[in-house]
Specification:
4-stranded mixed β-sheet, 38% helix, 7-stranded mixed β-sheet, alpha/beta, Spore Coat Polysaccharide Biosynthesis Protein SpsA, Chain A, 7 helices
Length: 251
């Protein structure tokens, strides 16, 4: 069976990444770039020059944006790839092989995360499985997961062996800006799911996150990178719960 494949890439101001991302997906049958209308750079121009179909949709949250993206492809098999990710030839061959099968209906893909110039192998950053390859007729996104979106499948999922390459954060400043954005979305998702803000969460949740990252997931094995990542992610966990309290106060 010669199944065809569409790729979907969400993008906002990704002119630095979009070209290399799409070129790494040249083996697919259709390329869609779902553009955040707030984009001010040449992302759309570069994507179109490489043959991608560029669509715009107002951004509410990641789950809603991905759900809208599933309505766009011509083909049932969809591979969701972020602009700062790259597919290797080995991953391409594996994807082509598995979509010829009748099942599973979705596949988890491992990722190598490069953060501040170094590949991170612990603290939850590898294998960092993401459910990215799916039959769109059997898939939708959990509306309760506004950030770190969750794909729900009507059927079984499998696991690929070859990873995506994720050039995650080039600088500490970029990491801080992105995590600050995520905490707003995370706080909103916590409120929507009925989580009540408690003072003890401001200490307990960050402490739990640091222990999980640095000790349980062996972040210490990544040296200074592992320590700093564990500290920062613990801090932003606490910030999300602080923002949850602010939302509760504002009504």
């Amino acid at each position: 069976m010669n199944e065809k494949l569409s790729t979907i890439t969400l993008a906002r101001n990704e002119e630095r990444n979009i070209g290399d991302c799409l070129r790494s997906l040249a083996w697919a049958d259709e390329w869609i770039v779902l553009l955040d209308p707030r984009t001010t750079d040449r992302t759309a121009e570069i994507a179109r020059s490489l043959g991608a179909r560029v669509c715009e949709h107002p951004f509410t949250n990641f789950a809603e944006q991905h759900e809208y993206g599933l309505s766009l492809p011509r083909y049932d098999w969809v591979f969701s790839v972020d602009a700062d990710e790259r597919a290797t030839p080995e991953l391409a061959a594996e994807v082509r092989r598995v979509i010829a099968q009748s099942s599973p209906v979705g596949w988890w893909v491992p990722r190598y995360n490069y953060i501040w110039g170094r590949r991170i192998s612990h603290a939850g950053w590898y294998p960092d499985y993401q459910l990215r390859l799916m039959r769109r007729s059997k898939s939708h996104y959990d509306p309760m997961r506004a950030v770190h979106e969750l794909t729900l499948l009507d059927g079984e999922a499998g696991y690929l062996q070859h990873p995506l390459i994720h050039y995650n954060y080039r600088t500490v400043g970029e990491f801080l800006r992105k995590q600050d954005q995520y905490t707003h979305l995370y706080a909103g998702a916590l409120r929507q799911s009925g989580v009540r803000p408690r003072w003890r969460s401001l200490v307990g949740m960050p402490a739990r996150e640091f222990w999980r990252r640095y000790v349980a997931l062996q972040g210490y094995r990544d040296g200074g990178h592992g320590l700093l990542l564990s500290v920062l992610l613990a801090y932003y966990t606490g910030l999300a719960y602080w923002r949850l309290r602010q939302l509760a106060k504002s009504g």
